[in-house]
Amino acid sequence: MPMPLLFALALILIAFLAYVGRYSGRLRVERSREIAAPLAEVYAAVADFATWPGWCPWLEHDPAIVLQLAGQRCSWRTAPAGDYEIVQRIAEPGRRIVQRIVSREPFRYAGQMHWEFTERDGRTLVTWRIKGRVAFALRAFMTTVRGALELDLRYGLDKLAGQLERGGQGAAYRIEYLGLRDVPASRQVSESWQGPISGLRTAVDGAVGRLRQRLAAAAIAPAGEPVAAFQRTNVKQGTTACRIGIPVADEVVALETATTPAHRAWVVRLSGDRAALDIAWYEAMQRLRIDDCQPDPAIPPVERYLGDTLTELLLPVRGT
């Protein structure tokens, strides 16, 4: 190999190591949630690994998972990637639990999980905390690792609440995996929008209202439920660009329209609070990975609004 090329590669390697070296690799993620159930019941559900399949977020990703239990040790593997081991270290009934966690895939990290329980007038405040260190190669992606774990902890506490609270008080939402579906070609009267993800719900409501008025003025009936097709999303910056539309049967010359070709999509349904859409998207991508499906970048993913409390996520996939 020519010396100039070797020199250039060495400079690139040094620059990369210097960049990664800026990050310590230390990881700390924490979520809390109040659960309307007695402290003893909440503590028991966390302390007993046999209950984990009902609420643990990491077990959500692969329906074929089987826990391996051995005393105070719990481990499992998922396909094509996923390898976890948790060992109970300290258990103080009614107060706290400390567990050792090792994740080899999809993110390599090791550390401790701390659980704290506080009684509040018959309810229980649960704090779930992970402290550890990620592998050196992942230090440049700490934001991604931290964001994924934050969603995991939030979803796990929500599922734990839904399982323990009487009358389903904690089940503010439910995620269903509908699998691969054929999506027919469609045309929508639409508006473009870009801005912070946090403002999307308000933007959708406003755009749908305006589009319905335009269709009514043109005496055109909608041919389906409103959608938002995401053309570009920057999770790190918290921004997105999308087209918000209402399907129509025929071309509408007087109004701005967009078309979507027929395709196959992995479909996930969120029932309930749309504040959980970020969790639904994250879980949908996990299932896409587990099922070894490749996203199709030529077709934008879509949210389809089937009512005030029902949303479908459509993730176009390649070659299925």
TrEMBL record:
InterPro entries: Polyketide_cyclase/dehydratase, Reg_factor_effector_dom_sf, START-like_dom_sf
One Pfam family from the record: Polyketide_cyc2
Protein name: SRPBCC family protein
Source species: Dechloromonas hankyongensis
